[in-house]
Amino acid sequence: WDYDKSDARLVDSFFSRFDLERISTLRKYQKPFSTIPIPEKFFFRGNEITVRPYQKEALLSIDKALEKNKRRLLVEMATGTGKTLVAAMMIKRLFQAGLVERVLFLVDRIELANQAKETFDNYLSEYPSIVLYGGKRSKEGQIIIGTLPTIQSQIDAFTSGYFDLVVTDECHRSIYSIYRSLLLHFDAIHIGLTATPSNLIDRNTYEFFSCWNPLTRKGEPTFIYGIRQGINESYLAPYKVYHARSKISLEGIKWQGEDYEPQDLERTVSVEDRNKLFIQEFKENEEKRNGDHPKKTIVFAITKRHAAQLTRFFNELYPEYKGKYAEIITTDTFDPQRAIKRFKKEPLPAIAVSVAMLDTGFDYPAVENIMMCRPTRSPIFYQQMRGRGSRLCTEIGKKEFLIYDFVGNAEYFNDEGYNPFEQKKVAMRQPTKEVEKEITEEEIPEQIVRQFVTIPLGQVHDEWVEKKYIEFGPEGEKVDTREYKDKFAEEVKKLSDTNKIVIKLRQQKDVTDEEIQELGQLLNHPEFFFNENNLRQAYDQPTGSLVDFVKSALGIHKFPTKEERVSRAFDAWIIQKNYAPGQTRILRMLKNQFLAGSKADVSDFNRPPISQYGGLQYAIKTFGEDGLKQVIDDLQQGVFQ
């Protein structure tokens, strides 16, 4: 019980006497954050760095939370916005304020540990840091950097009070399986860092970092700075997507977990002729861009064999570079860190072909192209690949980057690129000269009219094929709701023979609240996060429960259609009112407008059929201006959901 600072809390193990003495001494030298100025500029790796407004805001948000004695914080910052450097600035402030003396910085790959150490050695040179590898623990260093597996393997060497601060990079990956218990072992201030957008982080992560709002059922990180903010404020590079002509079909490919099975992918994608087409198309488009230098490009491949094949084809197509145009960088590469350094520091190779090495923690602003030859249905992995090109680079004049999508990833996530500084143009195909100028309906040339076919009513029996999306992917990308529901049905089917709760539901037996909560935690896992909110969006059932969705996937529950649901709600609502027949008629027409796809707002009153009954003016006269607003609000909140 830390009676002087907080209420009683459980700890995983006893503090040592030295821990208690150290903490007691540390508190004698604490001072408020307000006495520690945030620098406007500082030198980092030989360059003068100006602290950006959002970085200062992040630090102030952390200060404010800690001053309220919060012990768990979550910081979300997009790739390329200086997340690790902000972490270093934050750690320094906590040292200066006397809040911490020992820090644990957790990462999930040794390459990221080495990169973090470089940052800390430069910015936090007065606070020694070490990377903890396998073997005996070194007691040198106030900052210990380690991978999750390494710290887990040596957990018994650390008391619960050994560290004052635990910072977890890409923390959404650390809350699961054995690593959650690792974090819970340390009774420290826990700060989670992530570049993953908050709509991809599940409730478990929010609850661990004490930022889950049960009223809104949403996570509320301590600080958020997303990729679109970064692009809008000119701190990140906007991007375009090149949709390749040489597309592939992914039908029949098996799934492994929440993504494609690599061996199945390789058989489908890694076909020599197809890969040659990819590279030929890449070359043709690069030549059209009239670049004065080979643009640094990262290629994401499926397997090491696939990467080797792509590398060979690149070098064959660019013989003038004598086999040095492209280089493979995988864990099998002899000294991969030297290969990465070569890619960064030297003109050649211009292209790095990688498998699972450059998708996270690889910082190189001069990357101008991202080439996706590896399909994914994981929104987190897609975001990580895209993020490799997001940094600006003044040295080469880089103002944007291009994603070459040969496998339909961007299309799947409904990502058409993002550049807030240029007006988007959308066309099904290149416009003909006849329609390039603005024309009225009467002036449309006959040859264009003939391109459209009128189908008599009743002759089309296929299902409605308009795609609808659930807001699920990185930074606003969306996933097709049909595929989302299909994946959910597959997940439930897997559990229907093994999970006791799903078996009870299948047998139409009652389940307890505790069992529903347990099932919800089981389903709400990366990468699809099957939770009530997402399922309500996917099924378009705003009042559906988790049990309803599971039963629907099992084929023993049928949801009402939108028309049935809205009509029932409308009838129940209207019967409580005392409207005149004319008022009721207008409201029924508004309901029908909503079911036909309108927003059900004041604009509907000036469209048929309501406009034929006097339109908006008649509605205002009938209900009164304030009364009409109130009626529309009531319908939108209580009926039209």
TrEMBL record:
<dbReference type="Pfam" id="PF04851">
    <property type="entry name" value="ResIII"/>
</dbReference>
<dbReference type="GO" id="GO:0016787">
    <property type="term" value="F:hydrolase activity"/>
</dbReference>
<dbReference type="InterPro" id="IPR013670">
    <property type="entry name" value="EcoEI_R_C_dom"/>
</dbReference>
<dbReference type="GO" id="GO:0005829">
    <property type="term" value="C:cytosol"/>
</dbReference>
<dbReference type="InterPro" id="IPR001650">
    <property type="entry name" value="Helicase_C-like"/>
</dbReference>
<dbReference type="InterPro" id="IPR006935">
    <property type="entry name" value="Helicase/UvrB_N"/>
</dbReference>
<dbReference type="InterPro" id="IPR050742">
    <property type="entry name" value="Helicase_Restrict-Modif_Enz"/>
</dbReference>
<keyword id="KW-0378">Hydrolase</keyword>
<feature type="domain" description="Helicase ATP-binding">
    <location>
        <begin position="64"/>
        <end position="215"/>
    </location>
</feature>
<dbReference type="GO" id="GO:0005524">
    <property type="term" value="F:ATP binding"/>
</dbReference>
<dbReference type="GO" id="GO:0004386">
    <property type="term" value="F:helicase activity"/>
</dbReference>
<keyword id="KW-0067">ATP-binding</keyword>
<protein>
    <submittedName>
        <fullName>Helicase, type I site-specific restriction-modification system restriction subunit</fullName>
    </submittedName>
</protein>
<dbReference type="GO" id="GO:0006304">
    <property type="term" value="P:DNA modification"/>
</dbReference>
<feature type="domain" description="Helicase C-terminal">
    <location>
        <begin position="278"/>
        <end position="443"/>
    </location>
</feature>
<dbReference type="Pfam" id="PF00271">
    <property type="entry name" value="Helicase_C"/>
</dbReference>
<keyword id="KW-0547">Nucleotide-binding</keyword>
<dbReference type="InterPro" id="IPR027417">
    <property type="entry name" value="P-loop_NTPase"/>
</dbReference>
<dbReference type="Pfam" id="PF08463">
    <property type="entry name" value="EcoEI_R_C"/>
</dbReference>
<dbReference type="GO" id="GO:0003677">
    <property type="term" value="F:DNA binding"/>
</dbReference>
<keyword id="KW-0347">Helicase</keyword>
<dbReference type="InterPro" id="IPR014001">
    <property type="entry name" value="Helicase_ATP-bd"/>
</dbReference>
